[in-house]
Amino acid sequence: MTNQLIVTRVFNAPVESVWRTWTEPELVKRWWGPDRFTCPSAKIDFREGGVSLVAMRAPNEMGGNEWFSIWVYTKIVPMKSIEFDQSMADKSGNKIDPTKVGMPSDFPEVIRVEVTFKDIGGTKTEMTVTHHADMGQMAVFAKMGLEQSIDKMVAIFSTTN
Predict the structure, then answer these.
(1) Distance from chain centroid for Cα 128
(2) Which H helix or E strand runs over 31?
(3) Enclosing domain of residue 20
(4) Comparing 49-58, 90-99, 132-141, which segment has the lowest mean pLDDT?
(5) Number of domains into which the chain is organized
(6) Which residue from 28, 35, 151, 152 has the highest number of Cβ atoms inside 10 Å of its Cβ?
(7) What is the mean pLDDT of the chain?
(8) What is the pLDDT of residues 26-37, one digit of tens each?
(9) What is the pTM of this model?
(10) Which of 35, 93, 22 minimizes the C-alpha distance to 61?
């Protein structure tokens, strides 16, 4: 098992546009969650010390359950990097034990997330998302979910260019 989950993508968009996918609630709602999952709400308090609350809803054929996560921002370097601690939460934004919402006992209570942005020229941006945590038995699904979420983020720009 590894203590890092890393996904890198190149976007056909400038850094400022890719950055906004993390800071604007309507954009977060378009990509948060794996394929066929939706994000019905995203309350974003984007500042160091701020806490965002995002929801993820399974499709009806998979039970339609909703899960909530909080992102507690620890460091923000505009247009360069975002660091936050991600935890499972209740719908009010209170941190909860992941096992209370059906996660396995080895699922981390806190996932330290680092997102970096790099201008690679020609209005292209490379973004890397790193989860610093041992995802336990959910590691394969966590990687797949993160990759699918980032693919949805890439699609935002393929439909607007």
Answers:
(1) 11
(2) helix 25-31
(3) 4-158
(4) 132-141
(5) 1
(6) 28
(7) 93
(8) 999 999 999 999
(9) 0.92
(10) 35
